[in-house]
Design a protein that fits this description.
Distance between the termini: 24 Å
Low-confidence stretches: none
Radius of gyration: 16 Å
Number of strands: 15
Shape: globular
Largest sheet: 4 strands, antiparallel
Mean pLDDT: 80
């Protein structure tokens, strides 16, 4: 799964390994440039979330790509006030995903609700470039931004949620040891 301009591109790694996968197996065009995308790991059928340059989030069903029906099965316009830079799905709660934006905000979404984010985390002083969930705690996530700050959030610690922070660059996330 990759984004390029206003395109979403998908490859089959089995074909890639056999030498036949030089081209994407599927692609679709979005109305506006796509900024990031992420597979939905828990849903029973192949879905992915994509964010446009207009701060719209769309959950797409891979089975509908190329059909006469729109692949978009969930949509939230103006999910952030600026560009969305990262999307991560909760490893524990199937309908939760977090988004990081140039507006300095991390939004946590429950896709069963289509209105507003269930939690807004806004302590960053500049664009949030990356967000990721804890691989061991359902309510904990980390964010890092161009303000050179890394925050650890606990969604159970209302109203501020902040568990810890550090002044250190945080440019990518990984759950590998």
């Amino acid at each position: 799964l990759a984004t390029k301009g206003n395109q979403i591109l998908l490859w089959d790694l089995a074909e890639e390994l056999s030498g036949d996968g030089k081209y994407p197996i599927a692609s679709c065009s979005m109305k506006h440039a796509t900024m990031c995308a992420s597979w939905a790991p828990h849903l029973s059928s192949p879905h992915f979330m994509v964010a446009s340059s207009r701060s719209t989030l769309k959950l797409c069903d891979l089975r509908l790509l190329g059909s006469e029906h729109s692949p978009v099965v969930w949509k939230k316009s103006r999910a952030h006030s600026h560009i969305i830079r990262d999307i991560k799905w909760s490893p524990f709660v199937p309908f939760w995903c977090a988004t990081a934006g140039d507006d300095g905000v991390v939004n946590v979404w429950d896709l069963r609700k289509n209105s507003e984010p269930m939690v807004v985390l806004d302590d960053h002083h500049n664009a949030v470039r990356s967000v990721d969930w804890s691989p061991t705690h359902a309510d904990v996530l980390a964010s890092g931004g161009s303000d050179q700050r890394t925050y650890i959030w606990n969604l159970r610690l209302e109203p501020h949620y902040l568990l810890s922070h550090a002044s250190a660059p945080f440019t990518s996330t990984s759950n590998t040891p």
